[in-house]
Amino acid sequence: KAGVTQTPRYLIKTRGQQVTLSCSPISGHRSVSWYQQTPGQGLQFLFEYFSETQRNKGNFPGRFSGRQFSNSRSEMNVSTLELGDSALYLCASTISGSGSTDTQYFGPGTRLTVL
Amino acid sequence: AQSVSQHNHHVILSEAASLELGCNYSYGGTVNLFWYVQYPGQHLQLLLKYFSGDPLVKGIKGFEAEFIKSKFSFNLRKPSVQWSDTAEYFCAVIVYNQGGKLIFGQGTELSVKP
After folding, report:
1. Residue ranges of chain B with pLDDT lower than 50?
2. For A48, A102, B9, B14, which has the most beta carbons within 10 A of its beta carbon?
3. Could you confirm whether domain B4-113 is CATH 3.30.1060.10?
4. Do A104 and B102 touch (CB under 8 A)?
């Protein structure tokens, strides 16, 4: 069974632009979570989606948004990019919507560089 | 707010040495606990997890962790490390019944010298 896939793997943008990242969960998985990984702040939760609904949101500004489609694939969008948004963005999927009792399986991430 | 603290930022060991990585969390209610590993150039992988039952849990590659509720700790151990264990290790918690928000510690970078 294929793992979590994320596209693109690498992205370079300039300040002020917007970006959309994509995540395809493991087949049969229905919940997707997004995390930001930076050397300074470590791994921080962005949001969680289940059945096309945002179930949880982290402490990030409104420039960060996401959505989930009926096939469980998810996208996250960052508008008006800032230099501090440079990070590895990780997506994780779980098989069900039980949330806290699921194991999250991570994708390889999208490396975003903002110039 | 809940938080996770990993005591060691960088640990350097020789092969065959024993490993213990500390992890403490701050939350008074029920949590589920995880250790993830990130090998160089690879994605995060689950090492082990604790939801309930025996507080000593065994994971992949000879790792184990012990949950001590009174100390809010979930330390990771391995009796004898190998060069291939060189990686970054993350402790994480989820608050029970509050969805899938993983709260991660800052990570511990482990370097094993051959």
Report:
1. none
2. A48
3. no
4. yes
